Amino acid sequence: MAVVEDVSRNPGATISDVTRRTGLAQSLVSRITRRMADAGVLRVRPDETDRRKSRLEIEPSAREMFRTRADGSIASALAAHAPKLSAAQRKELTHHLVEAERLLREGQE
Predict the structure, then answer these.
(1) pLDDT tens track of the chain, all 109 residues?
(2) How far is CA 85 from CA 32, 81, 96, in A?
(3) 7, 83, 90, 92: which one has the fewest Cβ atoms less than 10 Å from its Cβ?
């Protein structure tokens, strides 16, 4: 996810750029990039000025999928991913997650 997040924030990044910002090994970033490209998440295109470099971008369809998922409600995500929680437990967890989000946003200001 670190690679996808970095490319999302830095469209047109090279593998070296991603490696430097994430601290991951270049071989790992290259492997992840290939797999993500094969899965249709990343678009890899040659650099226009240096054909030895590749530029990375999130595929528009993947970006839309991420946006749709991020815009979903926490309640539906909890119901899908933690089905054994009771309604009361989901309500309590939702409250704590909302509070955590508030604190994290406050910490960024």
Answers:
(1) 899 999 999 999 999 999 999 999 999 999 999 999 999 999 999 988 988 899 999 999 898 888 877 777 787 888 888 899 998 999 999 899 889 988 988 887 7
(2) 34, 10, 15
(3) 83
